[in-house]
Amino acid sequence: MALEQFDLTGQVAIVTGAGKGVGQGIAQVLAEAGAAVVGTARTESDIAATISGIERAGGKGVAVVADAMSRPDGERVVAAAMENFGRVDILVNNVGGSTYARFLDITDEDFRHTFDWCVTSAFIMSQLTARHMNEAGRGSIINISSGSARFGIRALAAYCTAKGGLEALTRAMAQELAPKIRVNAIALGSFATEGLQGSLDMMPGSLEKMNAATPLRRLGDVADLGRLCVYLSTRDCYATNAIFHVDGGIESNNSPLPIPDY
Questions:
Q1: How far apart are CA 251 and CA 231, in angstroms?
Q2: What are the angstrom distances between the C-alpha of 238 and each of 44, 83, 119, 177, 235?
Q3: pTM score, two decimals?
Q4: What is the model's pLDDT at position 229?
Q5: Residue ranges, the chain, pLDDT below 70
Q6: End-to-end CA distance of the chain, in Å?
Q7: Is 146 helix (H, G, I), strand (E, B) or coil?
Q8: Exposed, middle or buried: residue 224 (CB in 10 Å: 0-12, 13-18, 19+)?
Q9: Largest distance between two CA atoms of the chain
């Protein structure tokens, strides 16, 4: 009986940035729970591989090459969901990122781009999908944030600012879109992805330092994020306006990247 509440059969999820890493893991778990997944990425081969994997496992999915920062692209994504499945129940705003740059070296262009990448993309996709969710009388929007919104990280001032903005957007949307649509965010710590592994490989011993600085002494598993997204997508879920910290218990930056003082 309890597990039946987590069955997402019949629901349709849009997951942005689903070609790799966190977004891919979330998309796969939502599909395992029964949701049809419309996955997006800017690289065709990446999103095609994600959706092919979902279909091989018996799930349903559609791959759309799109830039979540583009409203026309977002409109195409939502149109694909409606054309193929006739509805949108779940939106996971996963895209985002930044480049390392010390505070005094960040350009205006880089700062604005990081904000658009992390926040404007979520605003656009949420506005487009919320119209359909509101008409249907239900929906769940999940924004993927970061622990950097709670504590600063050297050389990531733009990213920290943007993720803080994403959490503010989460709270604002949650208040305005209730009671039909629930809006929550998941603030991540360090997760085992190809991208992170590539960075760790360039710094021998960095994984051990990162684990030592994390109370649970390990990296996160992207499938765990997917399971939380399943809960947040269940129709009886009572959570909205919440920021869920899934970070192994960190209370400060656990990055092993050495950034010297000025």
A1: 25
A2: 36, 30, 25, 14, 9
A3: 0.96
A4: 98
A5: 1
A6: 58
A7: strand
A8: middle
A9: 58
Q: How far is it, in rounded angstroms, from Cα 34 to Cα 8?
A: 5
Residue 203 pLDDT? 80
Half-sphere exposure of 7 (CA within 13 A, CB side): 7
Which distant-in-sequence residues (6+ apart) come within 8 Å of 86 by Cβ? 12
d(CA 250, CA 56): 37
Count the Cβ atoms, other than its own, within 10 Å of residue 201: 10
DSSP state letters, 218-234: S-B-HHHHHHHHHHHHS
Quote the Cα angle for 147-196-141, to 5°.
Answer: 45
Decide if 159 is catalytic.
Answer: yes
Structure token digits, residue 88: 């949108």
Sole residue written with tokens 């050389």: 155
**Are residues 42 and 64 in contact, defined by beta-carbon separation less than 8 angstroms?**
no
Give the position of tokens 């960040």. 106
Partners of 143 in beta bridges: 93, 185
Query: Token pair of 104, please?
Result: 């005094």
The residue type of 188 is: L
Return the half-sphere exposure (C-beta side, CA atoms, 13 A cut-off) of residue 174: 18
Tokens of 207: 């994984």
**Tokens standing for residue 206:** 């960095």
For the segment 121-162, what is each residue's pLDDT rounded down to a tens digit? 999 999 999 999 999 999 999 999 999 999 989 999 999 999
Q: How far apart are CA 210 and CA 202, in angstroms?
A: 14
Which candidate in 159, 231, 238, 262 is catalytic?
A: 159
